């Protein structure tokens, strides 16, 4: 396998095309990830995230373009590439019939982890992922969060320098997802590994990633820091709670300031989106000047859905522009 590059990206896809029959998964995709970076791949199902991970892992070969991992071709140099890589797929990678300790011991055998100090390393991994007290219990009795933490420990046991994580929290309940995110956050802060994280969750990406890449139909539609993408492409909004007699006047003021609908939740709070962040102080001043009884004003940060829908709407508008009213033909 070629020597890893001293400078430049550790992961690189150049003008990669991959299709499955008539379905195009990636179309002329170019992406670079530097050593030690933590990059999130975002997008709806079918956007190309998992295909990208499988190409980097050498499980798929591109039909056009090149893929390089540490200077090597993941297909031609497969064993060498995978020796430095840990892949956490969407499906769990632990055996429910074995104990947690047995799962890690089996992974050590498969990946050739040296026997010297292995027991101590396994104990440390179990402790790091808060599984030491259940180390000798069968995994079949574990919660989903415990299984996912054990899966992550199993992937990390050979000490890979590159991690590819495919939706690591998607099937977890909120408590379990928080536990896994905490473990991932520790890994990201160490800066000792290059991490590619596929996720639907912008909040997760903001917590863990230096940079996010938004995919749609196999193409990069946005690339940058999570906070910058949210500010540039997300609509954001505002939530206001006022006294019941003031709701109608507050709704009118919000409707005047917002291009979107003003909704009311079951607790009487008014919410709207599409308000630029820098106009919120003026809007709050107008609410106060109207002599409303205000209990709460909260800025709503854009979600991944806001960002992605804004990007999608922009792309759809370029692909299918609204017809000119002067030339449109009525049905």
Summarize the structure.
By secondary structure, the chain is of the alpha/beta class. The protein has helices at residues 49-56, 78-83, 100-111, 118-128, 144-156, 174-190, 202-208, 226-233, 247-257, 280-289, 304-319, and strands spanning 9-20, 23-34, 38-42, 64-69, 85-88, 162-166, 194-199, 211-216, 219-224, 237-242, 262-264, 269-273, 294-300. Strands 5-6-7-3-8-9 form a six-stranded mixed beta sheet, sandwiched between helices. Strands 11-12-10-13 form a four-stranded antiparallel beta sheet, with helices on one face.
Can you walk through the features of this model?
The protein has 331 residues and is of the alpha/beta class. The protein is 36% helix and 25% strand. The chain has 11 helices and 13 strands. The protein has helices spanning 49-56, 78-83, 100-111, 118-128, 144-156, 174-190, 202-208, 226-233, 247-257, 280-289, 304-319; strands at 9-20, 23-34, 38-42, 64-69, 85-88, 162-166, 194-199, 211-216, 219-224, 237-242, 262-264, 269-273, 294-300. The strands form 3 sheets. The protein has a 6-stranded mixed β-sheet with strand order 5-6-7-3-8-9, with helices on both faces. Strand 6 (162-166), helix 6 and strand 7 (194-199) form a beta-alpha-beta unit. Helix 3 (100-111) packs across helix 4 and helix 5 (144-156) runs parallel beside helix 6. It is globular. The termini are far apart. The relative contact order is 0.12. Mean pLDDT is 86; it is low at 319-331.
